[in-house]
Transport ATP-binding protein CydD (Liquorilactobacillus capillatus DSM 19910), 230 residues
Amino acid sequence: AKLDTPYTIEIKHLDFRYTDGDKLIIEDLNLKIAGGEKLAILGRSGSGKSTLANLIRGDRRPTRGTVELNQQETALLGDDISNYIGVIHQTPYLFNTSIRNNLSIGDESASEQRLWDVLERVGLKQLVAALPEQLDTLVDEAGLRFSGGERHRLALARILLKDVPIIILDEPTVSLDPVTEQELIETFIKELHGKTLIWITHHLQGLSLMDRVVFLEDGRLQMSGDPQKL
Ligand code: ATP
Ligand code: MG
């Protein structure tokens, strides 16, 4: 089934444990995320933020309860989910091929112009233009050619090319200094205008740009509020 805007995410009575008998990582979590909302999820290391991201994207099945996108369970959508939800993981994966191919995974039809356009939007145009082979420069597997922040920008450029309505960024700024972090957050907010953004972090940097902040602790959302009022 083809899903249509406004792409509402609804999490209902969600429980999750990795292994039978283990304690619940997520426990009776309820959350509704409106289409276009910019939501920050905060929580300490180990609180279950990345686990929750995987559950939202349907990469893991709930132990109990549901995660729905427009009333469809994400865990049952299969590969279709990648048309709706894009994730940038804590350590973005780069492929051992050219920058061009790394960008166009999922959209091989992108024109030269469009590739440069997204690179500009994420602030990588100058860096790539200065490389001798430009878009054909090989990215080594570990992504060592690029800094942590540059890798996240490349991953963002890939997601912008794919043009999905919901984007989950899992600690995209973990390796960045505060100024670069603030700049990256501003870029993301601007570029993802009208799209849903779920920003997972344990920093307070940039939160004032978000519509809502929720805190994950002991498997539940302990607090929720307008970042301007925190
Ligand atoms: P961080 O801020 O450090 O990224 P997080 O909030 O993203 O932490 P998760 O990665 O979701 O935390 O992990 C939540 C809990 O689940 C942790 O106790 C972790 O050890 C456990 N966990 C994570 N992945 C697995 C797995 N594949 N199998 C078993 N336990 C796991
Ligand atoms: Mg994590």
Remarks:
- The pocket of magnesium ion (ligand 2) is lined by residues 49-50, 90, 170-171 (CB under 6 Å).
- The first helix runs from residue 49 to 56.
